[in-house]
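User: I'll paste a sequence; please echo it back and then give the predicted structure.

Assistant: Echoing your sequence first, then the prediction.
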Amino acid sequence: EVQLQASGGGLVQTGGSLRLSCVVSGLTFDAIAIGWFRQAPGKEREAVSCLSIYDGSTYFADTVKGRFTISSDNAMNTVYLQMNGLKPEDTAVYYCATSQGILQLLPQTYNYWGQGTLVTVSS
């Protein structure tokens, strides 16, 4: 069974940091791409950062570029999203999702999704 387990969310003050983790099971890790998406109340789900394990390609939304980094520990089948300099507008539920191999940016191209982890940034 395919399972994506996201963790690491929490409540932080503006300027704080969090590290999100996504552990993938039931898939060949080096054959997938992984995306972090977020959805705030009343807003569309948007791509935050994506990583192709297959070719190493990465993507960052303009709103997080320079503040967030994405990385993987392939031996642990885990992808991390390091979030620094957090702002109130980063508040959202963050979801980890997988697609097949090459880097994808659109949520409809991702076929497996985790439950999400809540990030709240207070002023």
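DSSP finds no helices and eleven strands in the chain. The first strand starts at residue 3 and ends at 7.
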